[in-house]
Amino acid sequence: MRIWLFWASLLTFGWLTLGSWRTVAVPEKLSDYGFFTGSIAGQKPAAGVVPYALNTPLFSDYAEKLRFVKLPEGETVAYNDTSVLNFPVGTTLIKTFYYPNDFRDVTKGRRLMETRLLIHQSEGWKAFDYVWNDEQTDAFLEVAGDTKTVRYVDANGKSRQHEYTIPNLNQCKGCHNRNEALVPIGPSIRQLNGELAYNVAGKPENQLMHWQQAKILSGMPSLDKCPKTPIWNKPETGSLNDRARAWLDINCAHCHNPNGPAMTSGLNLSISATDLTALGIRKTPVAAGRGSGGRPFDIVPGKPEESILTYRLESTDPGEMMPEVGRKTVHAESLELIREWIKAIK
User: Fold this and answer.
1) What is the pTM of this model?
2) Each residue of 261-279: pLDDT tens digit?
3) Which segments within the chain are labelled E, that is strand?
4) Under 8 Å between Cβ of 328 and 61
5) Left if phi > 0, otherwise alpha if psi is -120 to 50, otherwise beta: which for 186?
6) CA-closest candidate to residue 192, choices 208, 180, 203
7) How far apart are CA 172 and CA 48, in angstroms?
8) Taking the CB of residue 61, how many other CB atoms lie within 10 A of it?
């Protein structure tokens, strides 16, 4: 079954330009796309749908994520080690958010929350969100967003409950906007340069090598020449500085960069940024209002308790917290990482 989105698409993202008067056929159910085989809740990819993972992913209220990419048949994505990959028109990026019932034991099942799609159409990337039903039999197109209560046992054995917010389609622009255009955030060479088991029984493989062998990545040099993002919570993968910068890059730099929605802040939290003032060190805030917490600088070297950055990360006040969308809880573990990083800055 398909529904025809006309005014909704026009109002949310300008998917239809004035004068074209074209409608866009959008499947009502996630299962209509054919991305998965068997029970759709199993998230077993169909032929041509490739799983992937990021070394250091975006925090989303402790939700876990299953990521997949589907390129048009016969197409490849060109290697580029400076930015997110430039996927060809016809590509779909698929991301399912879920909570294990018990983070200590995956055999106790999980609850799928939503599946977000980014589809690269001829006029640019378009976002669609599918919300899973309570029966976990399918996910249905949702434009207006939703809020659901989630309950689970965390990795420390503590029972947790909080609200999980499913964004409306306009809110997608808050993170995915670059120069007024919607773009992907995560899948870059440095983020994909890590291992992933492509099936339950399989041995983990390097993702870049897998993509190259599957003929969906072209122009790749030898693996030792490819940059690699460390895993933020694994000290063996990188220094304190590298891991903190990796976390800030994926969680903050999609807005705080010279071309992002928060460009007017003057902050550039991209992993490639070298200007220490733009990084926030001894930088006074721009129009932060009460979001500054009365603190003088974004980052005060050696003093996280005096830095605006930590104030905003530890807040859950919608008028103060950062990121502004995508979370209602504090990511305590990464906050500790950022505190330690600021303490080490001289």
Assistant:
1) 0.88
2) 888 888 999 999 999 999 9
3) 2-5, 24-27, 36-37, 44-45, 49-52, 64-70, 77-78, 92-100, 110-121, 124-132, 139-141, 146-153, 159-166, 177-178, 181-182, 195-196, 205-206, 217-218
4) yes
5) alpha
6) 208
7) 26
8) 18
